[in-house]
Specification:
The protein folds into two domains: about 5-95, Ribosomal Protein L25, Chain P (Beta Barrel); about 100-195, RNA Polymerase Alpha Subunit, Chain A, domain 2 (Beta Complex), CATH 2.170.120.20. Helices cover about 15% and strands about 40% of the residues. The chain has helices spanning about 15-25, 45-55, 115-120, 185-195, and strands spanning about 5, 10, 25-35, 40-45, 60-65, 70-80, 90-95, 100-110, 125, 130-135, 145-150, 155-160, 170, 180-185. The strands form three sheets. Strands 1-5-6-7-3-4-2 form a seven-stranded mixed beta sheet. A four-stranded mixed beta sheet has the order 11-8-10-13, with no helix packed on it. A hairpin with a 6-residue loop joins strand 3 (about 25-35) and strand 4 (about 40-45). The termini are far apart.
Length: about 200
């Protein structure tokens, strides 16, 4: 099962009033969706919820939901925060099977900028996708996708088909063969090239 275990209780009421009551009791209200049972209003202790959230393995990962001694595999799809205090105020969970394919957005990070000839010459890294939609088993969702910029020169690009994905994971149709990033001329490079090509003054 998942690394994160979230203990919850079922809430009696739904709506704004019931959510406010849960928050006054030191809990974060949420809703459990998916499967044949329909939506269920739940709540988790705020301290436990914050601990799971700050682990970095809650949102977009498989989580073990525990209620009354029973465990359920779920995916945390959405968390809402207070606009001023940034305190979590609501969350949405979805029931899943451990090996069920989940469509989920995974962040893209870049490494070895210093090993890119294009960037070393002053080129610019144009990022087209900060995250990529994947189809991944619920128990094998990657935390990130890493793009190695080693050897990339001006004019080179990285597409989703170039990404290294874990076994069983594939790019969702929406992002299939999309450009993730490219190395382009910067304004400084363009100015330098123009100055070099201009005739010298007498």
């Amino acid at each position: 099962m998942a690394e994160i275990v979230l203990n919850v209780e079922v809430r009696d009421g739904v709506g704004t009033g019931a959510s406010r009551a849960a928050r006054r009791e030191g809990k974060v209200p949420g809703v459990l969706y998916g499967g044949p049972l329909g939506p269920v209003a739940i709540a988790a202790p705020i301290n436990e919820f914050r601990k799971a959230l700050y682990s970095g393995k809650l949102l977009g990962h498989m989580v073990t939901l525990r209620h009354g001694g029973e465990d359920q595999a779920v995916i945390a799809k959405d968390i809402q925060f207070h606009p001023v205090s940034d305190v979590p105020v609501h969350f949405d969970l979805y029931r899943v099977d451990e090996h069920q394919l989940i469509k989920i957005a995974v962040p893209v990070h870049f490494k070895n900028q210093e090993a890119s000839p294009g960037l070393k010459r002053g080129g610019a890294l144009n990022i087209a996708l900060h995250e990529v939609q994947l189809l991944a088993p619920a128990d094998s969702i990657p935390e990130e996708l890493v793009v190695d910029l080693t050897g990339l020169d001006v004019g080179d690009s990285v597409r989703t088909v170039d990404l290294k994905l874990p076994a069983g994971v594939q790019v969702a149709p929406h992002d299939r063969d999309a450009t993730v990033a490219s190395i382009a001329n910067s304004s400084a490079m363009t100015s330098d090239e123009a100055a070099e090509s201009a005739p010298a003054e007498a």
